Amino acid sequence: MAIKCKRIHKQLLLLIGIFIVLNCMLNVIPQYQILQKNKILFDVPHLDSTLFNNHSTTIVTRKREPVQIWKLHPSDDRILAQVKFRPNVDFTSLPPKRILLAQGLSGWGVQNGNKAFVEHQCPVQNCHLLEHPPSSEIIDARIFKEIELNENMYREALSVVPRHPDQAWIMFGLESPEASPMYANLNDVINWTATYRYDSTIVTPYDKFKAYDNFTNISDYKPNKNFAASKTKMAAIFMSNCYASNNRLDIVKELQQFISVDFYGACGTLTCERGNEKTCFQKLKDEYKFYLSFENANCRDYITDKLFLNALRNDVVPVVMGAHPDDYSRMAPPGSYIHVEDFRSVQELANYLKFLNQNDDEYIKYFRWKQTGSFIDTKFWCRICSLLWDHEKPRMSVPYLNKWWRGKGVCIGRGRWDKEMENIDSLKSDLLFNTGIEYVNK
Ligand SMILES: *[C@@H]1O[C@H](CO)[C@@H](O)[C@H](O)[C@H]1NC(C)=O
Ligand SMILES: *[C@@H]1O[C@H](CO)[C@@H](O)[C@H](O)[C@H]1NC(C)=O
Ligand SMILES: *[C@@H]1O[C@H](CO)[C@@H](O)[C@H](O)[C@H]1NC(C)=O
Ligand SMILES: *[C@@H]1O[C@H](CO)[C@@H](O)[C@H](O)[C@H]1NC(C)=O
Asked: Where are the membrane-spanning stretches (predicted)?
C-alpha cells in the first residue's frame, strides 16, 4: 500500500507539482522532507523547461518503448549506442550537469570541472565533476564506488546533499561481488549501475572489442603471421593473491603435472619485477605460447585485464577461467581464447595445449581475431554526461541491490558453470538480462 501510494504521489508531483500533496506525504517519504527543507522544487529547476518535452509526454513515451540507450538488449551492451548518443538539446547556454564524486576526485584520476569531457572529446561536454558539494547548486548525479557503498554512506550522503527526484545515484563497480561489501538496505537507492556486468545501465567493461562492420565469420580469416615463431616456452601465469575462492591455484598446480607452467608472483616460484611491467609483458610476448588468465572469482561477466591486457594485448593465447563461457564469447574477440570449461578435466585441457604446441597452424588460428576488429575507447565520462542530458531519461532504481549484485547464480565459488547451471534451474529467468531495475514511472 505504501509503495503504491508513493508511486501515485510521485506521478502527481511530476505531472502537476501540487505542493499540498507533498505536505500530506512528508511523514511517509523522508527524502521529500529533505527536499522541502532545502526548498528545492520538484521539476529540474535550473533548466529552461521550454527546451524539454513536458514530463507527462515523457512518461507516456517511456511506458510504451524505452529507447535503445536505456533498454536492456540481450545481444548488445548498448555501449556504442550510448557513445554515439547526443541529446537533442541546445545546452550551450545552460548550466552544466553536476556530478558529485564525494569520495574524492583523485581516486578517479580526474580533475574538477569539465576537463574529463573535453579530453575524451565527448559529444556533450557540458558536465562538471566535483568533489565538494556546493551549498547552493543542484547536484544532478552522484557516483559511488562499489567498495565504498554501504548503508551508512547512504544516510550520510543524504544529509550532506539533498536528493531531488531527477538526481541519479550511480554505483560504479569493477570489483567482483566477492570483493565488495554487502548492500543491506540499499533498496531503491541506486538509480543507475555502471559496472562490468552486462546488465548494468552503463556497462563498463575492462576493455571492449568491436568487430569491423565487414566482419563475416572467423573461419573466413587466415592468420597473417606466425605468432609461434619466437616462442619456446609453454605457459605462464602471474599471480599475487593465492587464496581465491575459485581455487585457481589448484588448477594451476594440477596443470603443472601435465605441462610446464612458469609461475610468477607471490604464490609462484618465479619473479618478474613489478616495477618492470614492460619487461614482463615483453617476455610473455616473446617466449610463451599460453597465458593462464585465471580470475580470482568465478562470477558472471567478471573478465578483467588478465584477459585483455596481460594476454590478448601481448600476443599470447589466453586460457581463461572465471566468468561463464557465454560471457567470454560475448566479450572476448572471436576465437581468441581457450576456456577451461571447454574440457571435462584439467588433463584434457593439458592435452589440447600440448597439441597446439606441436601444431603451429592450429596454434596461430587463435590470432585470426586481430584482423576482425579492434579495441575501442568506451568513453565512460562521455556516456554519463550524455545520459544525464537526455531529457527523456526514465526514472528508475534497483529495487534490491544486493540481490542484483550477488544473487543466486552470480558467483559460483569453486564450481563449474556447466554444473551450476544444471543445479540452478531458474537461473536464466532470474538473472540473465534481468537488471532488477525497475522503472519508477511505469
Ligand atoms: C504536455 O503533454 C500533454 C500530454 O501529451 C499535452 O496534452 C500538453 O499540451 C503538454 N503541455 C505542454 C505545455 O506542452
Ligand atoms: C574491413 O574493415 C577494416 C577496418 O575498416 C579494414 O582495415 C579491412 O581492410 C577491411 N577488410 C576487408 C576484407 O575489406
Ligand atoms: C562460420 O563458418 C563455419 C565453417 O564454415 C560454420 O560451421 C559456422 O556455422 C559459421 N558460423 C556462423 C555464425 O555463421
Ligand atoms: C532514483 O530512485 C529514486 C528511488 O526510487 C527515485 O525517487 C528517483 O526519482 C530516481 N531518480 C532517477 C533520476 O531515476
From this structure: 12-29
pLDDT tens readout for residues 231-277: 999 999 999 888 899 999 999 999 999 999 999 988 888 888 766 77
Measured in degrees and rounded to the nearest 5, phi and psi for residue 127 equal -135, 150
38, pLDDT greater than 90: no
Find the mean pLDDT for residues 31-56: 27
- The maximal CA–CA distance of the chain, rounded, in angstroms, is 79
**How far is the C-alpha of 59 from the C-alpha of 12, rounded, in Å?**
12
Question: How many residues does this entry show for the chain?
Answer: 442
- Residues contacting 20, CB < 8 A, separation 6+: none
Residue 226 CA to chain centroid, in angstroms? Answer: 35
Q: What is the pLDDT of residues 334-387, one digit of tens each?
A: 999 999 999 999 999 999 999 999 999 999 999 999 999 999 999 999 999 999
Give catalytic status of residue 119 as yes or no: no
The answer for residues whose C-beta is within 8 angstroms of residue 222's C-beta and 6 or more apart is 368
Name the active-site residue from 119, 131, 175, 295: 175
Please state, as a whole number, how many other Cβ atoms lie within 10 Å of the Cβ of residue 433.
Answer: 12
Q: Is the CB of 49 under 6 A from ligand 1?
A: no
Distance, CA 54 to ligand 1 centroid (Å)? Answer: 6
Ligand 2: residues whose CB is within 6 Å? 212, 214
Q: Is 216 in the pocket of ligand 1 (CB under 6 A)?
A: no
Indicate the helix (H) or strand (E) that contains 234. Answer: strand 233-238
Residue 297 — φ and ψ, nearest 5°?
-155, 145
CA 104/CA 112 separation, integer angstroms: 10
The closest of 98, 103, 168 to 139, measured between CA atoms, is 98
